[in-house]
């Protein structure tokens, strides 16, 4: 606003972004060399989320004791000094292979490296308990899906029923200043809760911060996938579970409304990393059709003897489905369609508006 009023303040937004959203300053509580750590994040497609990401966006909170880093790739060559290893305990968290704990007893901080079965964004979305979990950081960008709720109003909503893991998450957030006073229930109040339905990561309701604090690394290629992935957040009605409580079954038809988040994977041989989307989506149909034809064109570039056995060159493009192919290794010459995602998404949105 200031830069719109007076040209003398044009420098201010960049200055504030550098001062308030300085990732290196936040990381120094956990690592000695933030730039090197961020380069490592870029190399292994890692994403930071949960309490650290929440603290990054919200000022005035107590420092979090945990740095949660989600990555699909952990190798023996990384030479981590393991303090302990945790297993995923919830059936809904089956996309988590394990959690590596790196503890600093002097600083009393812990880095939790969450090894995921697939693209880390999918795991972050599927294991989110509240809207406060929907903040995450790449090596060069930071995203908040509900900035008005999180930053401006300091409130958060549950995205699934609480359980033991959800309780542990709330304990950590309470240490950061997010208590029951900030906890809103969707069946009591959803006033001002914008952004339900299909949500594209990084759309106009999201806050996207470009981190320009001296990192001498090229921009992450993850943004193509992050910013054209979506999830679905909806109100659903659930029947009440009485558990072992037999005294309060006054209304056997009792139900209540909750928010739920749905995210599933869209993968292709022509994408280096998968996308995410909601349950049923026109965007999924649109992008799958283009990816299948892209894959078919790349298969024809291969020598016939090197193609996967299930590929039928006589079948027309309209009936070809790359999901029918047996797993195969793409040649080094394979041309990926990653850079086409922005153009395809813009085309799909234009077609949808014209209908």
Structure characterization notes:
It is a single chain. This protein is of the alpha+beta class and 355 residues long. The chain has two domains: 13-218, no CATH class; 281-354, no CATH class. Helix content is 28%, strand content 19%. Strands 3-4-5-2-1-6-7-9 form an eight-stranded mixed sheet. Strands 8-10-11 form a three-stranded antiparallel sheet, with no helix packed on it. A two-stranded antiparallel sheet has the order 12-13. β4 (96-104) and β5 (109-116) form a beta hairpin. The protein is globular, with a radius of gyration of 22 Å.
Descriptive key words:
355 residues, alpha+beta, 2 domains, eight-stranded mixed β-sheet, three-stranded antiparallel β-sheet, globular
Could you give a quick summary of the protein structure above?
The protein has 355 residues and is an alpha+beta fold. It contains 11 helices and 13 strands.
Strand arrangement within the widest β-sheet reads: 3-4-5-2-1-6-7-9
Q: Quickly count the helices.
A: 11
Q: How would you classify the helix and strand content by structural class?
A: alpha+beta
According to DSSP, the number of beta strands is 13
Helix fraction?
25-40%
Please give the alpha-carbon distance between the first and last residues: 36 Å
Enumerate the spans where pLDDT stays under 50 for 5 or more consecutive residues: 1-9, 76-81
For the biggest sheet, the summary is: 8 strands, mixed
N-to-C SSE series?
HHHHEHEEEEHEEHHEEHEEEEHH
Shape assignment: globular
Please report which band the strand proportion falls in: under 5%, 5-15%, 15-25%, 25-35%, 35-45% or over 45%: 15-25%
Supply Rg.
22 Å
Mean pLDDT metric: 83
Number of domains: 2
């Amino acid at each position: 606003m200031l830069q719109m009023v007076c040209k003398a303040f044009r420098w201010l937004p960049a200055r504030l972004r550098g001062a308030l959203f300085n990732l290196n300053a936040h990381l120094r509580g956990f690592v000695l060399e933030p730039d090197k750590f961020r380069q490592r994040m870029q190399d292994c497609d890692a994403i930071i989320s949960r309490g650290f990401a929440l603290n990054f966006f919200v000022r005035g909170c107590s420092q979090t004791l945990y740095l949660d880093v989600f990555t699909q790739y952990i190798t023996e060559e990384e030479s981590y000094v393991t303090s302990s290893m945790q297993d995923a305990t919830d059936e809904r968290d089956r996309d988590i292979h394990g959690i590596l704990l790196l503890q600093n007893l002097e600083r009393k901080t812990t880095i939790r490296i969450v090894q995921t079965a697939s693209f880390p964004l999918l795991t972050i979305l599927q294991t989110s308990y509240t809207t406060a979990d929907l903040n995450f950081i790449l090596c060069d960008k930071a995203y908040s899906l509900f900035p008005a709720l999180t930053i401006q109003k300091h409130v958060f909503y549950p995205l699934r029923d609480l359980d033991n893991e959800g309780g542990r998450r709330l304990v950590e957030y309470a240490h950061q200043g997010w208590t029951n006073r900030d906890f809103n229930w969707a069946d009591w109040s959803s006033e001002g809760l914008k952004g339900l339905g299909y949500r594209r990561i990084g759309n106009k309701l999201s806050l996207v911060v470009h981190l320009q604090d001296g990192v001498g690394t090229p921009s992450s290629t993850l943004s193509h996938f992050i910013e054209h992935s979506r999830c679905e957040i909806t109100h659903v009605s659930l029947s009440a579970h009485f558990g072992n409580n037999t005294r309060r079954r006054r209304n056997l038809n009792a139900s209540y409304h909750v928010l739920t988040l749905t995210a599933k994977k869209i993968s292709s041989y022509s994408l280096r990393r998968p996308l995410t989307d909601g349950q049923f989506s026109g965007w999924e149909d649109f992008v799958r059709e283009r990816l299948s034809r892209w894959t078919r064109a790349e298969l024809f570039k291969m020598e016939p003897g090197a193609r996967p056995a299930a590929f039928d060159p006589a079948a027309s493009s309209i009936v070809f489905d790359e999901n029918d192919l047996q797993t195969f290794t793409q040649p080094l010459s394979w041309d990926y369609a990653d850079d086409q995602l922005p153009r395809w998404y813009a085309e799909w949105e234009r077609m949808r508006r014209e209908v």
